[in-house]
Amino acid sequence: MNHTVDEIITTTCASHCGGSCILRLHVKDGVIVHIETDDADEPQLRACLRGRAYRQRLYDPNRILYPLKRVGERGEGKFVRISWDEAIDTVAREIVRVRDTYGPASILYLPLAGDLGQVHGTGHMARVLAMAGGYTMPWGQPSFHAGIYALRITYGAFSAGNTRDDLLNSRLILLWGWNPAGTVAGVNTNWYLAQAREKGIKIVAIDPRYTDSAATFAHQWIPIRPATDGAMLLAMAYVMLEENLHDRKFLDRYTTGFDKFKDYLLGVSDGVPKTPGWAEQITGVPAETIVSLAREYAATKPSALLSGVAPGRTANGEQYHRIAITLGAMTGNIGLHGGDASARAWESITSYPYKVSWGFIEGLARNPVDREGPPRRKGDPWEYKASRVHRCEVPDFIEKGRAGGFRGDCKLIAVVNFSYLNAMPNVNRIATALKSEKLEFLFVLEQVMTPTAKFADIILPTNTYMERDDLVRGAGLPFYGLQRKAVQPLGESKSHNDIATLLAKRLGLTEYGERTDEDWIREMVAVSEIPNYEEFKEKGIYRLEHKEPFVAFKQQIEDPENNPFDTPSGKIEIYSQWLAELNDPELPPLPTYVDAWEGWNDPLRTKYPLQMISTHFKRRANNQFHEIPWLAETETHAVLISGADAEARGIKDGELVRVFNDRGEVLIPARVTERIMPGVVDVPHGAWYQPDEKGIDRGGCPNVLTKDKPSPGGAFAYNSCLVEIRSTRPDAVQAD
Ligand SMILES: Nc1nc2c(c(=O)[nH]1)N[C@H]1C(S)=C(S)[C@@H](COP(=O)(O)OP(=O)(O)OC[C@H]3O[C@@H](n4cnc5c(=O)[nH]c(N)nc54)[C@H](O)[C@@H]3O)O[C@H]1N2
Ligand SMILES: Nc1nc2c(c(=O)[nH]1)N[C@H]1C(S)=C(S)[C@@H](COP(=O)(O)OP(=O)(O)OC[C@H]3O[C@@H](n4cnc5c(=O)[nH]c(N)nc54)[C@H](O)[C@@H]3O)O[C@H]1N2
Ligand SMILES: [Mo]
């Protein structure tokens, strides 16, 4: 370090990768001049390239510094600067007008997770809107809805992750559709995987791409067609059953429904035995590979089948997760060190059931619209359907409203922490809906001028976690981090807490009260595991007592009599009673493989022969950091295509190609590589939608191509998508 600074502030990154890594901010004259990371005792909580480049995000010329009012068409991006008074007046007036004219169900609150701070999350605006009369809530988690569904149905739980240090207790690790070397999933995950590798623990990657994780950690890479994982897992179960390798004691003691599952495996119920030969036809994985992996997984104990959430982002994603859990049970790897419950949801990424839960602030107010909805049934994956709007259905809600069976006509939308237009499937359709006159008012809280912000009627400029105080939960290992305001908010940008307080005042919600950031943090610390606030404030971090790695469901397995699972039978339900009662043919009580729409066996593949996945990109956190120059230098946003598929289309590495289907077209450079299997292409998600005058997206946003139909359980099916690719060179030779 060759500069003098006034102060070095320790903070925890709250970017939307879920990393929660330690940053040390060097502040001089009120400006952050340098960022470094943890270099204290092991295990260090070291940050990635994005956290260390955050200075360019903080001082991004694209930052929104003043409240803005739209003057052009929605989406055109023409705004004028207005005062905070005018901005808050307008927003408050519109909320009251829409509520009084159309009823509160006409107000849609559309939050997601752009920032993972506990104080300045999405809770404040939820609280204001609830207190002002209520609002329609969205449902559907883009990340892991299929995982949550399977977790609830099978374990009756919301959390199933082990802390990452437990990986060192495994003897075999299956990275199933999971690439932590690229997508941060808790600080330190890679460090533990590297140690596992050094220790000689066998690691196998099952992924259509030869990922950085496969290249760095794995002994074996098994390429598989997207959305077919359930078939391979079933065939592995079949091998175990045929060769009597399964843990019958575990199944008898802790699970229900294995007999019915056995009949399904053997084909008794549907005439189709789920043999390795059957699975080879579907997955493209040779039968002998499936057989040997099944034998190895069953014979090596403990083994961790780490089922990633990406294979669950498919047309029947929940089935993959349910089958993966069933394999965890068949091998008796649940609830013990070195094993894994083979279930995934966000808590599996943060890996620890903290006392401070999500929704702390939101939970303080009662939302009448949601409460007045039809009663919920525990375990019913459609429990929200009647009172909420799936995030994929928003265009329908705008265009059809009550006539389309919704509980209101969507007239006002409030977007917080969400690059809605970019992150949701079928962007062209969303853009059309947002331009509709039926939508009378759209306001957005944003830090930068995103494609979504361009559609706003009013933009409220929001500051970043370096300009306010907050509390962050650790991921990977259990700890809390304190975020301290390092610099003054840029321009006139404000925090969520300040914006919501202003709005509450203008709406006359006297009972809303006023609390500083620190008041909120103290309130949360009081219910947390942190014993002493002052000490925490001083150090900036509190590591939870951690004598041994945390393992999900350990108590249920060690002492089942006193710790039943929260399911109707109290056991792990391979056959789900809840689903049997629900009686929905698309949500069968048994884990079942069904071919995905827009998958390998969809007849549409004759027209659009390539299966497109859209992975999470190393240099972005979803849509964030996309425009940061330092990061842009590290990796080009391009479509990954195999040598064979490129050659058949006369496509050369680096050239601009058209990626298209019936929903839209994207122009993007091609990266020809052997690191993706033939038949599959990858347009990484998070590049910003930038339509030209013909409607062709020059920004490279994969959601121009993805389908806005959720899986039966409500999962986003980004990785079930068929496309075709063509060169833009006139001399490209196309094979027939
Ligand atoms: N094709 C495809 N699409 C996908 C996915 C995929 O795999 N494939 N993945 C999906 C997944 S898993 C997710 S989680 C979503 C993510 O979708 P989003 O949640 O929309 O993603 P982010 O880009 O993290 O955050 C959204 C916005 O929040 C803003 N933001 C950050 N911090 C703050 C803040 O403190 N206040 C305010 N007001 N704004 C802030 C950022 O500037 C950013 O524009 O994308 C989904 N979309
Ligand atoms: N750097 C970075 N880190 C992130 C994020 C980010 O945007 N950037 N986003 C964060 C968020 S919000 C989330 S939800 C998580 C998401 O984390 P993940 O969902 O795990 O990330 P992905 O890159 O979408 O997918 C992981 C791997 O699954 C493979 N895959 C895709 N489809 C299939 C399939 O059908 N079968 C199999 N077997 N493999 C498949 C992909 O090739 C990829 O290598 O990451 C978090 N971490
Ligand atoms: Mo996500």
Descriptive overview:
The chain folds into three domains: 68-140 and 359-543, Rossmann fold (3-Layer(aba) Sandwich); 146-352 and 560-582, Dimethylsulfoxide Reductase, domain 2 (3-Layer(aba) Sandwich), CATH 3.40.228; 603-727, Barwin-like endoglucanases. It is 28% helix and 16% strand. It is built from 25 helices and 26 strands. A hairpin with an 8-residue loop joins strand 4 (68-70) and strand 5 (79-81). Helix 4 (123-131) packs parallel to helix 19 (496-506) and helix 8 packs antiparallel against helix 11 (276-283). The protein is globular, with a radius of gyration of 25 Å. The model has no long low-confidence stretch (mean pLDDT 94).
Summed up:
The protein is of the alpha/beta class and 736 residues long. Strand 17 (470-473) and strand 18 (479-483) form a beta hairpin.
Output the CATH class name of the largest domain.
Answer: Alpha Beta
Strand segment tally: 26
Report the span from N to C terminus. 59 Å
**With helices defined by DSSP (H or I, 4 residues minimum), what is the helix count?**
25
Topology:
Blueprint: E1 7-12, E2 22-28, E3 31-37, H1 49-52, H2 54-58, E4 68-70, E5 79-81, H3 84-102, E6 107-111, H4 123-131, E7 138-139, H5 145-155, E8 172-176, H6 189-198, E9 202-206, H7 212-217, E10 220-222, H8 229-242, H9 248-254, E11 255-256, H10 258-266, H11 276-283, H12 287-299, E12 303-307, H13 317-330, H14 346-350, H15 368-371, E13 389-390, H16 394-399, E14 412-416, H17 420-423, H18 427-435, E15 441-446, E16 458-461, E17 470-473, E18 479-483, H19 496-506, H20 517-527, H21 533-539, E19 541-543, H22 554-558, E20 572-573, H23 577-582, E21 610-613, H24 629-632, E22 639-641, H25 643-648, E23 656-661, E24 664-672, E25 680-682, E26 722-727
Parallel strand pairs: 6-14, 7-13, 8-9, 8-12, 9-10, 11-20, 14-15, 15-16, 21-25, 22-24
Antiparallel strand pairs: 1-2, 2-3, 4-5, 4-16, 17-18, 18-19, 21-26, 23-24, 23-26
Helix pairs in contact: 3-19, 4-19, 5-13, 8-11, 8-12, 8-13, 11-12
The chain binds ligand MGD (2 copies) and molybdenum atom (MO).
Molybdenum atom is lined by residues 142-143.
